[in-house]
Structures are given as structure tokens and as C-alpha cells.
Specification:
alpha+beta; 2 domains; HisK_dim/P_sf; HisK_dim/P_dom; phosphorelay sensor kinase activity
Length: 353
Amino acid sequence: MGETSGSNEAAPGLALLPRQGTPRLLGPLLLDYLGLEALPPMPGATGIDGLMAAAGFLRRDGARNLWEREDRTLLVGEEPLEDGGRLVWALPVPWSASQAASPVSQASPTGERVADRVRYLSLASHDLRGSLANIRSYAALLLNGRIPLEPKAQRGLETILRNADRALSFAQDFFDSSRADLGALACERERQQLLPILDAAVERTRAAASAANVALALDDLPELPNVEVDAGRIQHAVESFVHHLLGRAQPGESLHVRAARVGHEVRVEVRRDGAAVPEEDISAVFQCEERAFRERKLEDPLRVFLARQEVEAHGGQVGAQADAGGTTLFLTLPVSLAASETRELGHPAGWQA
């Protein structure tokens, strides 16, 4: 931390400023650099100016990116994200107070690399997903029943539509996972019930289970505490577990989604009742590159790896277990703090019904 460019560079402290809601830390470094125990509230203030002012920092005269408070000087920048939020990064200034008197016209190389990478991913996502969305839209338009189609053309358009949906889903997973690697995965967390999220995940994967001739059920749940989560992210994680186990299930087997409170956490399980899988498969479930090279495909390894990133972004964990009766993938989520239980329940804005 605070080393010159001739040695190891400091890692940037990161925070996400969502389009709505309060700022969220992406790792502990930003608080260390700010010298705070928690991010300050920002009533009526947005962006870097609001965040740094609330933390007690003042912008240095003549230096757009330098902020000071007592003996601390930070280099701070921000980049817009595709969803309307902003990624804020901060670095301790790696020079003495006397050296810092000279004007600074460039952002930190480390900060620039993070910001440039996020911007690059946003551009690539926009271009790729925009083209795929157009293909999908025109295929769906031709399939709306208003235009008579020969059976062969009908099947061809259905194949185009199906593969466009698959490619859009894969592209979304790829770019989300890449953003997560940079600490820039957007998560719009709200305190809410877990049952609707699990129910939506089961309904979204029911057609795939039916096609595989595998029974899929959401078990009766005990009374659960509310959780502070991005509903869409957790739903995606559960769906990823279901798809992974469906790919290994035999016709006639069954999958169960269930949840229970365990101490200060809620544990969500997706259980496949059936033949056990090899131990090496269990130990590598969440290893994206290892599985992709071994299986010679990326779709499922990436999807399950992103599920791990999404859960870890919430402060939770994932795991896999196997026994003679089947296989279980699970995730844990921290229970909302008691103080937050008095707040009004949020609507699951990210819920993918």
C-alpha cells in the first residue's frame, strides 16, 4: 500500500454507487483508505463528490482527482456502468506531502486499468448482446403466427430463437463474471423474503426438468428470516445449481430445492436424488477453467462459477456434497441484522419472473 511505481502497486479500493439505494463496498480496501469503519450515509448526494464529502474529504485545489483529509490524500475516480450505476475506485497517493504539491494530471495506472476494463466490458456487452437481441426479435416476429410458414421454416426459426436465447444467457453470464473478477458486479440488495425467489427459480427451470424427464419440486419451507439480497442474483444462482444437476440426472430421478436457517445463516440446497457422482466432479464443481478444459465446453462451468461469485458478493458461501443417495449443491446467505428487521420489506426488483 502506498508504494512507488517501481515496486508493487496498491490495489484500488472499490465501491458501487447504484442508480438507486445506498453505496456498497466491493471489498474492504476502500474503508481502509478512507480510515472509516463503514461507508457514511449520503442523503441527497451522489457520485464521488457526495461520497468523499460525506467521508470528510475535500478536493485539493487545482487537482481534479485528489481528495484530502488531515494526513490522508487519495486519488479517486469513477466510471459509469451499463445499468446506470457507477464504479468508484480510490488509491492512496504514493508520494510524500512535499511531492504531492505538484499538480497531478493523470489517474493512477491501476485505477485506469480497472476503469478501462469495466468500460471495455460494457462496450463489448452492448455490441454483442444488441446484435443477438435483434436476431431474437426478428425470429420471434416471424413466429408470431401472422405469417404462414412452412414446417421446415417454422422449425428453423424455432432453432434460431432457442439458440439466440442460449447465446444471450451465456453472454450475460460471461460479462457478469468478468465484472465480478474486477469487483464490479452490480448487486441491488433489498431486504425481502426468500420463498418468492426460490419459487421463481423452480418455475423458470421446470420446463428444462420436464424435458429431461426429471421431477423438480420446491419442498415445504420452514419459517425463514428475511434476507438482504439482490433477488435476481440469488435466483440465478439457484437456477444454475438446478441446471448443473439436471445435466447429470438420469430420467426418472428427482431434484428438490429447499432451505433452512442454520445459526446466523440461511442455507439453500438443490438436491439430486440418484446415483452418486465421482469425487473429482464434486471437488471441481465451482472451478471454471479446470472444468471447461476437461469438459471442453464453458457454458455450465461459467454459469456455476458466476453463481459462486454472486453468492460471495452477498457475503455467503457455496459448496457441494455427495453421498450414496445423490448430490447436493448449496449456498449460504447471512441473515439480515436485527436492526434492519424494522425496515419495510423491499419488492424483489431483480426478480426474474
